[in-house]
Amino acid sequence: MFYTGSSLNWENKIHPDDQDRVLKLINKYTSGEKKGLYKAEYRFRKADGTYANVVDKGYCLYNEEGKVIRMIGSTEDMTERKLLEEKLLQQEIHKQQQIAQAVVDVQENERAEIGKELHDNVNQLLTTAKLFLELARNDASMQESMLKKSSDTIMNAINEIRKISRSLMPASISDLGLISSINDLVDNINLSRQLLAEFKYDRNIEKRLKAKEKLMFFRIIQEQVNNSLKHAEASHLLISISNHRKTTRLEIKDNGKGFDQDQARKKEGIGMLNIMSRAAIFNAKVEIITAPGKGCHLVIDLPYSSKKTIPE
């Protein structure tokens, strides 16, 4: 828009908080102190009394002596763009807050799980071992057998701690890569004979994923496998990772009893919350396809970009 009113009238319409800054800047150009493009953003009072965000752009014209004789330019209403920028900024802030909360949620849930494992398994084993040792000390006739039972129980506790340690940071991810790590996990599932597990994947998965994305996928697979073993009553589990133009897709599908998603949301299970939180950190989309008696199909779509930045 162009403003054709008097200079004083124009000055009085500048927002009081912006007036001094704008007038000082324009005086530098009209006095000849500064040359080139004049540009200033400020709030300007409209006829209805509200303020618009505007940007002025202009040039000074000079006489033969190099003195400013005139200034020409235009004023553009930037209100809508400013509002859009503010909206986008607030959305980005909200997004970063969600990611930060997701990181905290994952950490807290993992700590809760570790605490539960230590209390329910390791603590009980050590308590039992202590009981065997006390029996051995108090009854000479049972000493040898109680010491052996105590030793076996302590070894079981050691194996449980190793199991917890491995689940926290599987060496195979960094040493063997994602594909070999998942194959190792699948082999262990099949050895347990609790269900039949399969793994399918596209070529170049290892090259396409960053290190932290691989770990995220592996953690989600661990979590969902655990869900299937504990709750699904499934006989078959399929894990697949496929390349798409804009995403890398992880799918985990079982033929178990499925569940009602509305009821599951009310319960806020730790396992599914962990999966959601981990995916949110990488802006991955999570879809759960399930119903009572229909099994469970988990789909994770991770955005693909050759220049993506991985959250710390």
List keywords for this structure.
55% helix, alpha+beta, disordered N terminus, Heat Shock Protein 90, five-stranded mixed sheet, Beta-Lactamase, three-stranded antiparallel sheet, single chain, 10 helices
Describe the 3D structure.
- The protein is of the alpha+beta class.
- The protein has ten helices and eight strands.
- It has three domains: 7-77, PAS domain (Beta-Lactamase, 2-Layer Sandwich), CATH 3.30.450.20; 81-168; 170-312, Heat Shock Protein 90 (2-Layer Sandwich).
- Strands 4-5-6-8-7 form a five-stranded mixed sheet, with helices on one face.
Number of domains: 3
Regions with little confidence, pLDDT below 50 for 5+ residues: 1-5
The helix/strand series, from N terminus to C terminus, equals HHEEEHHHHEHHEEHHEE
Number of helices: 10
Strand content: 15-25%
Shape: elongated
**From the helix content, strand content and strand pairing, which structural class follows?**
alpha+beta
Strand order of the largest sheet: 4-5-6-8-7
The helix fraction, in percent, is: 55-70%
According to DSSP, the number of beta strands is 8
The CATH homologous superfamily of the largest domain is named: Histidine kinase-like ATPase, C-terminal domain
Can you summarize the main beta sheet? 5 strands, mixed
Give the overall average pLDDT. 84
Radius of gyration computed on alpha carbons: 33 Å
Q: Class of the largest domain, according to the CATH hierarchy?
A: Alpha Beta
